[in-house]
Structure formats: structure tokens, C-alpha cells
Amino acid sequence: MELTKKRFERELLSWYSQQKRDLPWRKTDDPYKILVSEIMLQQTQVDRVIPKYLSFLKQFPTVQDLASSSPGDIIRIWSGLGYNRRAIKLLECAKAVVTSHDGKFPRTEEELQKLPGIGPYTSAAILAFAYNLPAIVIDTNIRRVFFRIFLGKPSLLPNLQQKIINHVSKENSREYHNALMDFGAMICTARSPKCEECIFSQNCTTTKIYSKEEMETIASTIFKTKQSKFIGSNRYYRSMILKKVQEKNEITIDELKRTLPQEKDAKNLVAQLVKDKLLIIEKKKVFLPK
């Protein structure tokens, strides 16, 4: 039987109704809470995000609460998630929503993308998950699912975007995109895909062409973005400096130097953090922005 758009959506949503993950940001349609989850989930695993998401919203339950807080407050509660610039962008976005939109998030991609820290993916996610509008939300899981089921060959990759666009649900955008993400995370995984459990196995183009090992190789080559090594990187030492500043409230660069390897330029690392609005220097003292 041909895997039509209608059949694909129906069977996917049926699977999702039984297998969906219990994630806290799926229990709300508040665009602010959706935004917080999307920013936190950038380059960070779901299991690490869940406790931070819950504690963040406990301290800043509304966009107004976040907008009225200080950068230092945000950085402290963000600690441990990494990529701390995301926290500052989230704060700037909250301030813009409050000052320019009376605390209400826009309902178009164009207006959403005018807000600090919101690009094409995040704007589409807000429209789909908060407003249930038929936006095109494409993450790595969704790309991999569509590529494997409908295309299969790397030579057909240029057709992937249009294939996804053609299949987007007009009525069930929120559930549809969540289902796709779960299907990619739980069944059509990058490594060791569970083809024997796949509801689309009879129609999957890739399984007709490649072995599981070949499927893994293709997925890792096309879709997996290799992150740079964290330990020993600039990000690692920037994070170390931020933690030390939080512990001491204020500290001198000379004191910071003594906590870093000799070859590391503490002054330059601090300058980077100041440029990113994560630290302030006054009278030779380094501290979190207030």
C-alpha cells in the first residue's frame, strides 16, 4: 500500500499516542515556556534539560518575571547547561517581548525572528508547539526520518526539504512534529535503528537498499554534527571562570590565573566573557552582571 501523506500522518500519530515521551514542555502551549525549552535544548541533551527547565520556570514563571531579572540571576540558574550566551539572549528576548509587544509573543515567523536569539527554527517551533500552526519545524531527527523512509539515497538529499514541507500537517502541527521527533529519537535512531519495531518498515526506502550498518554510516555522515571536544577547550575554561566568579561573587584576574593552566590567557578569556555580556570588570574586579 502506498505511503501517502494522509496515511503517513495517521499512522505516525497513532504510534505517538501510545509511545510518546513524557516531557514537561509538552504540557503547555505558553509560547514563553516553549521558548525556554527550545533555547535550552539547543546543543543539549533532553535528560540534562528537564531539571534545568523546571527550576528555571520555578524562578521565572512568566516572561515578565524573566524580563525584570538581572543577567547575573539568569547565569547562576543556567549554570551547568553550557553555552551561556543562550541565557543572555533569552533574557534580551524576554525584555523585547515585554517592552515592544506588551508581554505577548508574535504569531508570525517574520515578527518572531525580529526578537533577539530567535532564528528560523525557533520561530517555527513556537508557532507549531505554542499555537499549533502548520510551520515547518525541521531538526536532525525529523530530517533523518524523512530521508530514510522516503528518499534513501544520498544523491536525493537536495529533495529532502521539499519532501518534509509537502508532508507537514495542517491540522495537527503540534502533535505531528512531536511525533516525528519522538520517532527519530526512539525508533529511527542514528545508531542501531529499531527497524523491526518500525511501523513504516514495509514502505521504508532505505531498508530496501542498505543494511543497518550502512544506514548508520550514512546517517552519521549526513546528519550528525560532530561537536568539538569540551575538556581543554576555550568553552571549558570559560565555564571554569564563570563558576569561580559565582563562588567568589567577585574575583581579580590574578586570582583567576592561579586556577587555570599556565598556558591559558585568563585576561583574554575574561575579555571574551565580558564581550558576551557574561561578566563585568570594574576596578580590576571581575563579577557577574547585575
Task: Write a compact overview of the structure shown.
This protein has helices spanning 5-19, 31-41, 46-59, 63-67, 71-78, 85-101, 109-112, 120-129, 140-151, 160-167, 173-186, 212-222, 234-248, 253-257, 266-275, and strands at residues 250-252, 280-282, 285-287.
Strand order of the largest sheet: 1-3-2
What's the helical proportion of residues?
40-55%
Estimate the mean pLDDT confidence.
92
Spatial separation of the terminal alpha carbons: 62 Å
Structural class: mainly alpha
* C-alpha-based Rg, rounded: 22 Å
Hey, roughly how much beta strand do the residues contain?
under 5%
- In N-to-C order, the SSE pattern is HHHHHHHHHHHHHEHHEE
- Globular, elongated, flat, extended or rod-shaped: what is the shape? globular
Quaternary state of the chains = single chain
Provide the low-confidence segments as ranges.
none
Q: What's the total number of strands?
A: 3
Largest sheet: 3 strands, antiparallel
Count of helices? 15
Structure description:
A hairpin with a 2-residue loop joins β2 and β3 (285-287). This protein has 290 residues and is mainly alpha-helical. α1 (5-19) packs across α11 and α2 packs across α8. Strands 1-3-2 form a three-stranded antiparallel sheet. It has helices at residues 5-19, 31-41, 46-59, 63-67, 71-78, 85-101, 109-112, 120-129, 140-151, 160-167, 173-186, 212-222, 234-248, 253-257, 266-275; strands at 250-252, 280-282, 285-287. The chain contains 15 helices and three strands. Helices cover 55% and strands 3% of the residues. It starts with a helix and ends with a strand. The radius of gyration is 22 Å and the shape is globular.
